[in-house]
Amino acid sequence: MMQLFIPLNFLGFVYREIRGALANIERMFDIMANVPQVEDRDDASSLSPTVGVIKFDDVSFQYDKRPILNKVSFEVPAGKKIAVVGDSGAGKSTIIKLLFRFYDVNSGAITIDGIDVRQLTQLALRKAIAVVPQDTVLFNDSIYENIRYGRPDATEDEIKQATQLAHLSDFIDSLPDKGDTKVGERGLKLSGGEKQRVAIARAVLKGAPILVFDEATSSLDSHSEQAILSALRDAAKGHTSLVVAHRLSTIIDADEIVVLSRGSIVEHGTHASLLAQQGLYARLWHIQHEQSDSAKANID
Ligand code: ATP
To answer: Strand 264-269 and strand 256-261: pairing?
Structure first.
């Protein structure tokens, strides 16, 4: 009986491993299927930008002939943090997709360190940008392995440094198997805020000059939001960062805030100067504050 049990047990193990691996591969294909194909030009440079100055110069873009961005111009100097805010559907995530060259602009140009993104190989371009997406893809592996995905040849020390910057160390220390703890299918064993901090650690580990943060729309409790905010602040040090924000409290400290409305920039400036303008940003700010005040009142 024992002789039969061991091989069956082993087969069960192999089956689970293969099923896990297939699930991960499937997910990779899901991601790739969502990435539209743009071609590298024959003369594209494979030298990845290292400084990280981003410039959108009069960029217009349509999805299937539907105008989405209209003559958008802004610049993010090296090491600075710029935030893009605006109503749902204003075109915020599209800005990130264009920076990443998932699509080509219809007119205008996007440059990094003065080089048009169409003049770079996709590999060189993507090496320069680390993204923390809205919905992070986590594999059913350990937390450390999920972070290592940012740079497969990273050492354990480098991974630990990234977890510190992402304010994950205390959480990891509280787990039974520390960093070797499995995150479950699609990271189900982690909260939304923890998942985003794993994504921040992964992005930091990549070591790219540009950090892009696409804030999750789902609401977080204020503790998780504060943890992400601190993680983001530390992770952004030494990087040029572009943040797409839904909660304006996330981007008060941005060097520049760009306010998009129906694909056009209608205002830009710091948090204080935008509040003083009493325009769209100030309205969005007051609406969000009234909502959070009434949510607090409901709890009290
Ligand atoms: P949200 O705050 O809701 O995330 P957003 O400002 O990030 O919105 P985008 O995701 O940039 O908005 O979308 C801008 C517009 O482009 C929306 O009207 C959206 O429906 C449309 N859109 C987005 N992706 C595609 C696509 N792949 N094909 C066609 N239209 C799209």
So the answer is: antiparallel
- Residues 201, 144: Cα–Cα separation, whole Å: 10
Alpha-carbon Rg for the chain, nearest whole angstrom, is 21
Paired strand residues for 210? 129, 240
Dihedral sign, CA of 59, 62, 66, 68? negative
Q: Which residues contact ligand 1 via a Cβ below 6 A?
A: 63-64, 68, 86, 88-94, 246
Which protein residue has the closest C-alpha to ligand 1 atom 10? 93
- Tell me the CA–centroid distance for residue 173 and ligand 1, in Å: 39
- pLDDT by 10s per residue, the chain, length 300: 545 555 555 555 555 555 445 444 444 444 544 555 789 999 999 999 999 999 999 999 999 889 999 999 999 999 999 999 998 899 999 999 999 999 999 999 999 999 999 999 999 999 999 999 888 888 889 999 999 999 999 999 999 999 999 999 999 999 989 999 998 877 778 888 888 899 999 999 999 999 999 887 666 777 777 888 888 888 888 899 999 988 888 889 999 999 999 999 999 999 999 999 999 999 999 988 877 666 655 555
